[in-house]
UniProtKB/TrEMBL annotation:
Origin: domain of life: Bacteria
Protein name in UniProt: Glycosyl transferase family 1
Lineage, top ranks: Bacteria, Pseudomonadati, Bacteroidota, Flavobacteriia, Flavobacteriales
Signal peptide annotation: none
Chain ranges of the Glycosyltransferase subfamily 4-like N-terminal domain: 14-183
Keyword annotations from UniProtKB, A to Z: Transferase
Entries under InterPro entries matching the protein: Glyco_trans_1, Glyco_trans_4-like_N
Protein's UniProt keywords contain Transferase: yes
Pfam families: Glyco_transf_4, Glycos_transf_1
GO MF entries: glycosyltransferase activity
Residue ranges annotated for the Glycosyl transferase family domain, each copy included: 190-333
BP GO annotations: lipopolysaccharide biosynthetic process
Length: 369
């Protein structure tokens, strides 16, 4: 049967998976792909609704069901599974693209891919250097089942895929597809002497506290796009750090275009969309020395130990003091960022989709070529 390729895709509305989903859906318009987007985790905000409305190829199915990693999620996870099954039965897609794990145990009449964006077990290993505690065992079993039931498991980096395999074992088929962004080309940038980072101060994975702890010893001020208030209401106000709170994408882009250095001190970062955005905006990159960031950025960044404040301070201060090095690293980062476009990401996903669905769809190509 010939016709438009129809995909059922799940997404959450909370973090980077939403950005990834929007960029992928937009890029898939060039292949005339119809996406039935099923969302969980919380209702869309105004900005997210606007993003969806601008995509002519997306049909939205919205819910506020809890995600599998949230507190006491299991009743919602089962309700969401039944709901996704009902959407599937109405839509009859050619392929299912899961961006979470809780709904895979269904009766599907088409191939299934699951994207391993992250999980509690890999987070715990990276942050705590140990296995997640027993209360996460049910979650672990759910993730393992989801990955094993998938026709293909995708991860945003080879390093992330290897971490998944080390915990959950081998998969029927697996590959890495790098994330990409729809980013405008920055013109001539007038950089200012300040450091920018992004993340919530209470997020152990982003490790923002390392940067804020050394900020008073750095020559330049530090700005952080993120909240400085923890979920329990505690406010963190370190010296020489200005927290900018949650920022709309355009405002964050403007800050990145002015910042000279972008620092990502993460202990756990499966890909790092904010780093990509900063590189595209002409920031020199100072990153934590973890496998995923090394894989993506290679020699286009300088690196420090995310568990060592002395190491981080020395590397960042050297980038501040050495203007020639800073300009060199900026140029490398801008060039490297060009490899991670939404178009390139969509092309890789289309190749995968075409392997899995009926032969008729192999003739689908980018309509703009």
């Amino acid at each position: 049967m010939k016709g438009r390729l129809k995909i059922l895709m799940t997404a959450d509305t909370i973090g980077g998976v939403w950005t990834y989903s929007m960029d992928l859906c937009k890029a898939l318009q060039d292949y005339d792909v119809e996406v039935h987007l099923v969302t969980m985790g919380g209702l869309l905000n105004e900005e997210q609704n606007t993003q969806v409305e601008q995509l002519g190829n997306v049909h939205l199915y919205e819910s506020s069901y809890k995600l599998e990693w949230m507190q006491n999620p299991w009743e919602d996870v089962e309700k969401a599974r039944q709901w996704v099954q009902s959407v599937h039965d109405r839509v009859m897609p050619n392929l299912i693209h899961f961006n979470n794990y809780g709904q895979i145990n269904g009766r599907w009449n088409c191939p299934v891919i699951t994207v391993f964006h992250s999980c509690v077990q890999t987070w715990w290993q990276a942050i705590k250097s140990e296995e997640a505690p027993p209360e996460w065992e049910r979650y672990k079993e759910l993730v393992e089942k989801a990955l094993r039931l998938s026709d293909v498991v995708v991860a945003p980096t080879v390093a992330m895929l290897q971490q998944a395999e080390s915990i959950y074992g081998g998969f029927a088929s697996a590959e890495a597809i790098y994330n990409g962004r729809n980013l405008k080309v920055c013109g001539s940038l007038r950089k200012e002497p300040y450091i920018l980072s992004a993340g919530r101060v209470w997020d152990e994975a982003k490790n923002i506290k390392l940067l804020s702890n050394i900020a008073s010893e750095l020559e330049w001020p530090v700005y952080i796009a993120g909240q400085n208030e923890s979920p329990d209401g505690e406010t963190y106000t370190p010296a020489k750090v200005r927290f900018l709170g949650h920022m709309p994408q355009d405002d964050l882009q403007h800050c990145m275009e002015r910042a000279s250095i972008f620092v990502m001190p993460a202990k756990y970062e499966p890909f790092g969309l904010a780093v990509l955005e900063a590189a595209n905006a002409g920031c020199a990159l100072a990153l934590s020395n973890i496998d995923t960031l090394r894989e993506i950025w290679g020699d286009a960044a300088v690196y420090f130990n995310p568990f060592d404040e002395i190491s981080a301070k020395a590397i960042i201060q050297n980038l501040i003091a050495d203007e020639e090095l800073r300009h060199k690293m900026t140029a490398k980062a801008v060039i490297r960022a060009k490899d991670f476009t939404a178009a390139a990401m969509a092309d890789k996903y289309m190749q995968l989709y075409q392997k899995l669905v009926h032969e008729d769809y192999k003739e689908l190509t980018n309509q703009n070529v």
